[in-house]
Design goal:
Blueprint lengths: L4 H14 L4 H13 L3 H9 L8 H13 L9 H16 L7 H21 L13 E2 L2 E2 L2 H18 L3 H14 L6
Antiparallel strand pairs: 1-2
Helix pairs in contact: 1-2, 2-3, 3-4, 4-5, 4-6, 5-6, 6-7, 7-8
C-alpha cells in the first residue's frame, strides 16, 4: 500500500519460502510481482502452490489470469503467444483439480477472447507465422476458429446459468462472437 514493492516482495517471499502453508503469502508475492511488471515471476509463484493445498485450484486460476492480465498483444508478440498456449493448457489441466464447469468455461472464454484480440491485432484474417498450426482450447488460432470457440464457451455458460436474464445475456454474447455463416 505504501508503494514499496521491493520490501513487500521480500517479506512475502520470506514468508512463502519459510512456510508454504501460508498460501496467502504466495498470492501476495504474485500480486507484488505483477505490479512490478514481473509476470513470469508472478506465474511461477502461483504455480509453486503445492497440489496438496486447498488453494491449489485458485492459484492455478490466478496463474492463467496473470498470464493474460493487462496485455496489449501485438502482431509479432511471440511471448504472448507462448503465455496464451500455456494458459490454454492450464485451463484444460484444471479439470484434474476439480474446477467447476461454470468457472472453467468462464476461464476458457477469457483465454479465447485474449487469443481473438491477439489474432485481430495482427491486422490480418490469417494466423501469424509465429503461431504455426497451434490450437487453443480446441479452436484453431485464427479469427473464425476462435469466434466459434467463444460462441461455444458462451453457449455452455448459458446452459449453466441459474437465471433467465443471465442466460439470455450469455446467448446474445455468443451470437455476437459467432462468425458469419451462410446457413
Amino acid at each position: 500500500m505504501l508503494g514499496q514493492l521491493d520490501n513487500a516482495a521480500e517479506y512475502y517471499r520470506l514468508v512463502w519460502s519459510t512456510d508454504p502453508s501460508f498460501v496467502s503469502a504466495a498470492f501476495g508475492l504474485a500480486r507484488v510481482r505483477l505490479a512490478a511488471g514481473d509476470r513470469r515471476g508472478a506465474v511461477d509463484t502461483l504455480e509453486s502452490v503445492p497440489e496438496s493445498s486447498v488453494h491449489c485450484t485458485a492459484a492455478r486460476v490466478a496463474a492463467v489470469r496473470a498470464r493474460l492480465r493487462g496485455r496489449t498483444p501485438s502482431a509479432g508478440d511471440v511471448p504472448f503467444l507462448d503465455d496464451l498456449t500455456a494458459a490454454a493448457g492450464q485451463v484444460e489441466a484444471l479439470n484434474a483439480y476439480g474446477l467447476d464447469p461454470a468457472r472453467r468455461e468462464q476461464l476458457s472464454a477469457e483465454v479465447l477472447g485474449s487469443a481473438l484480440d491477439w489474432v485481430l491485432s495482427t491486422g490480418r484474417d490469417t494466423v501469424p507465422p509465429a503461431a504455426g498450426g497451434r490450437m487453443v482450447l480446441g479452436s484453431g488460432l485464427d479469427e473464425r476458429g476462435l469466434r466459434f470457440g467463444l460462441e461455444r464457451a458462451y453457449r455452455t455458460l448459458a446452459r449453466l446459468a441459474p437465471g433467465g436474464e443471465e442466460r439470455i445475456e450469455l446467448v446474445e454474447r455468443a451470437n455476437r462472437y459467432r462468425p458469419r455463416t451462410w446457413v
